[in-house]
Give the backbone structure.
Amino acid sequence: MDLIGLAASIAIALAAGVGITIFVTGGAGFIGSAVVRHLLRETKARVVNIDKLTYAANLDSLPGAVGHPRYAFAQACICEGPALRKQSAHR
Ligand SMILES: NC(=O)c1ccc[n+]([C@@H]2O[C@H](COP(=O)([O-])OP(=O)(O)OC[C@H]3O[C@@H](n4cnc5c(N)ncnc54)[C@H](O)[C@@H]3O)[C@@H](O)[C@H]2O)c1
């Protein structure tokens, strides 16, 4: 495979989300939950939902995500650097 072919293959894999992890913040909220559902449905990416679970959160808006092999949830605040670094280190 030449360099252009390799670059094209990588671009296609990235577009499909193969082998990548996407962190969604606020994924239990109105917009974030739609993003999580879309990513699980339309890509092959692993999806990590990082949400503080405020009053606005609703985990019931993620049917099909819990137990999904490419989905993980972490209750954390995006303002807490160490907690976020821990999440990225474990994925
Ligand atoms: N049924 C509806 O039409 C409906 C319902 C809800 C919201 N809305 C609209 O959607 C828009 C807002 O949607 P949204 O998804 O941006 O907000 P949201 O308030 O719905 O969700 C925000 C999410 O982010 C999380 N969060 C907040 N602070 C955080 C922090 N520091 N760290 C980690 N997570 C944190 C919350 O727990 C929540 O799950 C508004 O315009 C609102 O009016 C519409």
